[in-house]
Design goal:
The chain is built from 19 helices and 13 strands. With about 450 residues, the chain is α/β, with parallel strands linked by helices. It has four domains: about 130 residues, N-utilizing Substance Protein B Homolog, Chain A; about 35 residues, no CATH class; about 55 residues, Alpha-Beta Plaits; about 210 residues, 3-Layer(aba) Sandwich (Rossmann fold), CATH 3.40.50. The strands form two sheets. Strands 5, 6, 7, 8, 9, 10, 11, 12 and 13 form a nine-stranded mixed β-sheet that branches. Strands 2-3-1-4 form a four-stranded antiparallel β-sheet, with helices on one face. A hairpin with a 2-residue loop joins strand 11 and strand 12. The longest helix is centred in the C-terminal third of the chain and has 19 residues. It is globular. Keywords: Cytoplasm, Methyltransferase, RNA-binding, rRNA processing, S-adenosyl-L-methionine, Transcription, Transcription antitermination, Transcription regulation, Transferase. InterPro entries: MeTrfase_RsmB-F_NOP2_cat, MeTrfase_RsmB-F_NOP2_dom, Nop2p, NusB-like_sf, NusB_fam, NusB_RsmB_TIM44, RCMT, rRNA_ssu_MeTfrase_B. It is found in: Cytoplasm. This is 16S rRNA (cytosine(967)-C(5))-methyltransferase.
């Protein structure tokens, strides 16, 4: 059965918003299930991610024009209205009346005639009054202004305003609301930079080597990178720019013994192996058995031969031998990858940060036990929450006098990272730098 972009989009956002689904998994599943054309695939992707990003903004407007609050509407109706309003407010290539008509047809298919009439009335009312839409005043109530205009939950805005100030919070929100760029990591074991560039250009892609970050390239004008022969041959890996930095900061050497404590899906594991030129030993530990096959598949595709996988809780795992270097890329709130997974805005709660910070500390404590004297450990997360980052490190250091924090200022400078992103010797990247993501990287050294 084939379905169009709007049908795929409404089924996707309904599952994410109402059934706690994940945007990337849900959308990819439906795109394949319904054999969507390339043109409709692009529109469906824009509608799903765009309406999830701007959900608070859309709900604010809908609540001004509908005679029922969004929370009081049934799930299909509110998500159909969100999709329609997103097209009207944010997609200039779709005329307002067309967006309205298409959304009404969607309501007829997925609801009933009464719902379609309601949707039509609300959207037509908004179309007539687009210029009158207002948000809370920035000066009078900055938190509510940012919350609704830039579409973020109140608790996140309050946290960031307290830590970064009003303007920087607006900049962060703006950056997180942009469509993320596609970054790939060249596999140095299989191909040179020039060869990879030529291959991808011949495939119709635009590719740009990213200055100061070895192996990293920005690509555009692509459809599905995983369908390319170069990807299948293991000549590159799709990975975030800041994630690529982690391996370079740990800087493993040929012949060393390395532990990746929380390794799935294997992006950082395989990068470490590439940096070691496939010489040495890497133990890839992972809590979830169902993710081990993904690590193995990535290793096989990339030609990695020095990785051993195992399934253990990183808080309890034991080893008979110590390691030269350890990576603790801990599970986190994911607040730094909101641009890729916008539903994180609406899924995460303040209490999650506390729970995760305790988990992260326990992983760090147990993992550090197996580091050799003089060895180095990198702790990293894809979040900008201080409670999950520098505060976890400080709690660890307060009880582990045999470790000290390595100042990463010099290494950061080598990678072109501005000094404003160095916090207490660690790297706290914000989405306002090279990539619209947030990431934390710190290095510890064992002294005795």
């Amino acid at each position: 059965m084939q379905k169009n972009a709007r049908q795929v989009a409404i089924e996707s956002v309904y599952r994410v918003n109402e059934e706690d689904g994940y945007s990337n998994l849900t959308l990819n599943h439906l795109l394949q299930k319904y054999d969507v054309t390339s043109r409709d695939r692009a529109l469906a992707t824009e509608l799903v991610y765009g309406s999830l990003r701007m959900r608070n903004n859309l709900d604010w407007v809908l609540n001004q024009f509908a005679n029922r609050k969004v929370k009081k509407m049934d799930g299909w109706t509110r998500n159909i209205l969100r999709l329609g309003l997103y097209q009207i407010r944010f997609l200039n290539g779709i005329p307002g009346p067309v967006a309205c008509n298409e959304t009404v047809e969607l309501a007829k298919e997925y609801q009933h005639r009464g719902a379609a009439k309601f949707v039509n009335g609300v959207l037509r009312n908004i179309l007539r009054n687009l210029d009158s839409i207002e948000f809370p005043d920035l000066k009078d109530d900055p938190v509510q202004h940012i919350r609704f205009k830039y579409s973020f939950p109140q608790w996140m805005v309050e946290t960031w305003v307290k830590e970064y100030g009003i303007q920087k919070t607006i900049d962060i929100c703006n950056a997180f609301n942009q469509v993320p760029e596609k970054i790939i990591r060249k596999n140095s074991l299989k191909i040179s930079s020039k060869e990879l560039q030529n291959k991808l250009i011949n495939n119709g892609l635009e590719i740009e080597e990213i200055k100061d970050i070895p192996q990293a390239f920005r690509v555009s004008n692509y459809s599905r990178l995983s369908k390319l022969d170069s990807f299948k041959a293991g000549e590159f890996y799709i990975q975030g720019l800041y994630s690529i930095l982690v391996g370079h900061i740990l800087k493993p050497q040929l012949g060393e013994r390395v532990l990746d404590l929380c390794s799935a899906p294997g992006g950082k594991t395989t990068h470490l192996a590439e940096l070691m030129n496939n010489q040495g030993e890497i133990v890839a530990n992972e809590l979830h058995l169902n993710k081990i096959d993904l690590i193995k598949e990535n290793c096989k595709r990339l030609g990695i031969q020095i990785v051993t996988t195992q399934v253990q809780d990183g808080r309890e795992v034991e080893f008979n031998q110590s390691f030269d270097r350890i990576l603790v890329d801990a599970p986190c709130s994911g607040l730094g990858i909101i641009s890729k997974k916008p539903e994180i805005k609406w899924k995460k709660k303040p209490q999650d940060i506390h729970t995760l910070s305790q988990l992260q500390l326990e992983l760090l404590i147990n993992g550090s036990k197996f580091l050799k004297k003089g060895g180095e450990l990198v702790y990293s997360t894809c979040t900008i929450a201080a409670k999950e980052n520098i505060e976890v490190l400080n709690r660890f250091l307060a009880k582990n006098s045999d470790f000290n924090l390595v100042d990463l200022t010099s290494q950061a400078n080598d990678f072109g990272i501005p000094s404003k992103f160095i916090k207490e010797g660690s790297i706290q990247l914000l989405p306002t730098w090279k990539e619209n993501e947030g990431f934390f990287i710190a290095k510890l050294k064992r002294n005795f």
